[in-house]
Write the structure tokens for this entry.
Amino acid sequence: MKAKTPNSRSAAALRAWGTRRTPQYRARRTEDASKAALQQWCRANNWKLVVFESASGAPRTGIVDAVMVRIKPGKPDAIEMRLVQLKAGLAGLTAAEVTRMKKAATAVSTDWLLVAYDGTTLHLVPDVPRPGERGVEARRRSPAGNEKRDSRRAPHRAADS
């Protein structure tokens, strides 16, 4: 293979050298480094980290990149949660991003779910909505014709006689 520079570098080495200097490559490396640092900090401080990214590993476009969760110290039935936006390198924090994060924190929805596995089937109570369904539709869906009631509604009472 013939060298392209006086330093006798191969064409593949020159392409790799060029790739490592692109802004996208550097941004990805600093993002990976910040994610690894956050994961290490979470492990050391008893937090669990959930990072939202695509199957290819690309970050999502929303303001929230990750969620940190832990059982609240001293309160075994309370959960503490933090929404996270990862910043790396020279990326600065803007007032608009702070506003979006605060808005995202107020939009967090929570609900309860019991999961039971009987060896063959995974049972979710109340039902988790299928893709395209809303939560209420899933709760009203009745398998095998059995009527299901929304557990958050008041129980049905017979009229007093």
